[in-house]
Amino acid sequence: MKMKTPSRIGVISDTHNLVRPEALAHLAGCEAIIHAGDICGQPVLDALARIAPVNAVRGNNDTGDWAASLRTHEIVTVQQTKILVVHDIADIKSDPREDGIGVVITGHSHKPLIDTRDGVLYLNPGSAGPRRFRLPVTAAILLIDGAHAEASLHRLIE
């Protein structure tokens, strides 16, 4: 019997209308991409969609007709793992555990973070867009194997 291999999900946020070649290279080979908001233009989503199907949420800088169809909260299920995607962690109003969420993906702060709280994996891939302050330019990979998820951060530029 063939075992299912882990799903490789690319996670990116806060691109602010910049699609770096390093980000595209990092996401190559992913079976799906999650963008946690502050996309700032449809061409960003189009570029990502050439790599893999994209799930995206609207960030505070995503305005205009192109962003009207984006939701502020999205739940994505990969294998047996429910993923809550929201731009700003402050917009989460309930306990993710009670909703059966295994992973919470956020953006907004531009600060990369991987943390586990009460059995829920919290991932902020940081910002893949223009450098802000002294924060690194990063994206992430989420590996999901059944109900188990693990994340890794990748610095896109030095």
Describe this protein's structure.
It is a single chain. 9% of the residues lie in helices and 36% in strands. With 158 residues, the protein is mainly beta. The protein has one domain (7-157): Purple Acid Phosphatase, chain A, domain 2 (4-Layer Sandwich). The chain has a 5-stranded mixed β-sheet. A 5-stranded mixed β-sheet has the order 4-5-6-8-7, with no helix packed on it. A hairpin with a 2-residue loop joins strand 4 and strand 5 (81-86). The longest helix has 8 residues, at 42-49. The radius of gyration is 15 Å and the shape is globular. The mean pLDDT is 95.
Provide the fold topology.
Elements: E1 7-12, H1 21-27, E2 32-35, H2 42-49, E3 54-56, E4 73-78, E5 81-86, E6 103-105, E7 113-117, E8 120-124, E9 137-145, E10 148-157
Parallel strand pairs: 1-2, 2-3, 5-6, 6-8
Antiparallel strand pairs: 1-9, 4-5, 7-8, 9-10
